[in-house]
Design a protein that fits this description.
By secondary structure, this protein is an all-alpha fold. About 70% of the residues lie in helices and about 0% in strands.
Length: about 170
């Protein structure tokens, strides 16, 4: 265990944005964001019939929390999730809770209006998750390199087999 790892408690690749907090798996991080987004969306659909401030706050908070809490080595999924969450959750929640539309055009408008109205929140959440994720990659890259240098490792699997030698003589 390196001195930095001993100070903070977790290897850099397993940390969240906070060095003393263990990161969660990417599926759990996406689940946190999806749960908060769905909760905010359900509240707003029942309250005002579309997306509103409760949805926006829950959505941005969930996405930022996910990218901050995920393991450093699994940052990709939470960084790209904001548009995908909207694409999946808004139609699902609106169709489940919204009033039934008689035709295809009405159904498309019932789903399309909240998607369009949620665009500013999606832009803010996407920008925030990308900035936080790229910042974590840049800042924690130095920590990864320092951990590898202090512990004598050079990259996962290659380092595990580096000290092994077979009992047979070398071929010339």
């Amino acid at each position: 265990m390196s001195t930095r790892e001993a100070r903070t408690g977790w290897p850099v690749r397993e940390r969240s944005a906070l060095p003393t907090v263990l990161g969660i798996p990417p599926l759990a991080a996406v689940g946190v964001a999806a749960a908060l987004t769905a909760l905010g969306l359900v509240i707003d659909v029942l309250r005002i019939g579309g997306v509103g401030i409760v949805f926006s706050i829950a959505y941005v908070l969930g996405c930022v929390l996910a990218v901050g809490w995920v393991r450093r080595r699994n940052l990709f999924a939470p960084m790209v999730q904001p548009p995908l969450l909207l694409l999946v959750l808004i139609p699902a929640v609106v169709l489940l809770l919204g009033r039934p539309a008689p035709g295809l055009a009405e159904t498309a408008l019932l789903i399309g209006a909240p998607l369009v109205n949620a665009f500013p929140s999606m832009a803010i959440a996407t920008a925030a998750t990308l900035l936080i994720g790229l910042g974590r990659i840049a800042v924690q890259r130095v920590d990864v390199e320092e951990d590898e240098r202090l512990s004598g490792r050079r990259g996962g699997d290659a380092a595990r087999g580096a000290g092994r030698t077979s009992g047979s003589p070398r071929r010339s």
